[in-house]
Amino acid sequence: MKLTVTDIVIIFAYLVATVVIGLVLKKVAQKSKSNYLLGGNKLPWYMLGLSNASGMFDISGTMWLVTLLFVYGLKSIWIPWLWPVFNQVFLMVFLSVWLRRSGVTTGAEWITTRFGRSRDSNLSHGVVVVFALIMCLGYLAYGFIGLGKFVMIFIPWDIVQPYFPFHVSPEYVPHVYGIAFTLFAVFYAVLGGMTSIVWADVLQYIIMTISAILIGVLAMKALATESLVVPEGWKTPFFGWRLNDLDWRGIIDEVNSKISSDGYSLFSIFFMMMVFKGVLVSIAGPAPTYDMQKILSTKSPKEAAKMSGFVSVVLMPIRYFMIAGFAILGIVYYDRLNLMVGGQIDFEQILPSAIAEFVPVGFMGLLLAGLLAAFNSTFAGTLNAAQAYIVNDIYLRYVKPEASNNQVKNMNYITGIVVVIVSIIFGIFAQDVNSMLQWIVSALYGSYVVSNVLKWYWWRFNGYGYFWGMVFGLIPALIFPYVFTKTLDLYYFPWLLIISAAGALLGTFLTKPTDEATLKSFYKTVNPWGFWGPIKKKVMAEDPDFKPNKNFKLDMFNVVVGTIGQTALVALPIYIILKDAFPIWITIIITVVCGVILKKTWWNKLPEK
Fold it and tell me: What is the pTM for the complete model shown?
């Protein structure tokens, strides 16, 4: 076993702390549905921001990003635009404010704000619940796979097998570990609800920050005595038509096979697709997962915007300091890593293998606790979102609207356990972290985009259009991975978009518009910009003092500035570890300039009401 007694004590202390948080905050969560699902809208924006950042600092994603930086160098800072990572900037600038103004509990409940209570609204509500649950289960399975692959490096199965009651095939060993450690996240998330999750996340963020600094410093010390041998072009974020300049032959030959299998060789086309998809996904608003629930949990629209902006500031530098540290340690000491899984090289093992090889006793326990915390944070937040949709949007809407507080509490517990069991089953059938991630960010998001763009910006779009747009997108999103088995998911995103748009437009134009009273209420409350001309005229006629939103150009300017600043925050910690002085100063200057601009054009203009 790789762990010492000191390491095990540190990990155990962290796990016990999460259990205590769940037990202490149990009574607070049981006071009401709002307390359980949204923390009673009493949590400060900076705590929710730290919690949200902690939820995005997950093991599976970190394993993937370490692999990307190892293989592609500074060019890898663009690949997370697949999520897209800059969606936090759109949320910060305007969408968090719009969403929080609705005052609802979930994204599905928000549908009533936009389409009212009618048959088409009920259909739209139902399809959002289905999408949200598939998305949440996908994220839970994604984290579950990464956790299992991570733990098996430190607790070899041949040590555990003699004490296990039945034989487990090697390919299912990660799932056994995933189940074991998942139970701790389930405990505090199910007992304490959103408040418990946020407090646990703050603890976890502190642990992960200490761990990230440790790994970055270890990598910098390694570079003081060892040379970093990488292909030409590895240290620059700029790229040409193809990734021809990244040739690992004679350095680590097998990395070229990894580049080929990833499908990123035509990088310019890949980049354009990412930007195209990323902008559409971002203006569609947050997907109905833990990110949306944190926005809805804030005290006000102004605090929702601050929370979303704070996420990038506290997440990017710390996370990439750790990622860069691991990637550089992996390159410098590649011959000492154990990347073999099932007789084949698995580059997703760089992170856990580097921890096992390079992190000193005691610090390894802290680092493992931090990464387990990262998993727990993502898992717990996503589980809370799934519970919210089942309890709020199915149980309380259709099954028992008059349910007592005690019945709601029990339903939260039951749904939490059921969701975890189903996500474990999902995880067993998923191939690896990258395949699960590609499906989530490309296929599932592709089905979500059209309907959720049109709902914000076009008055004529109705509930039937929303429903059929989602259905037309969701069905091929579930089928395409089995049809286009050799195609990168991102490349069939346009087809998902076209099919979904056809469903949305047919559903809209073949049916009546949403009733006028609902549209006027939505427009006055949320006050979006976009194609709302006819509704704006009627609202202005009734209320001449109403001030329509004219911030489109300013918002787009702030999005561009924010994205530049966020990208600089990603590159800065990498350059710091590489000790590359000129790029360090350039990224610092870019970050400061962007911050000063946003203070004047965004922060000072946030709505007070």
Answer: 0.85
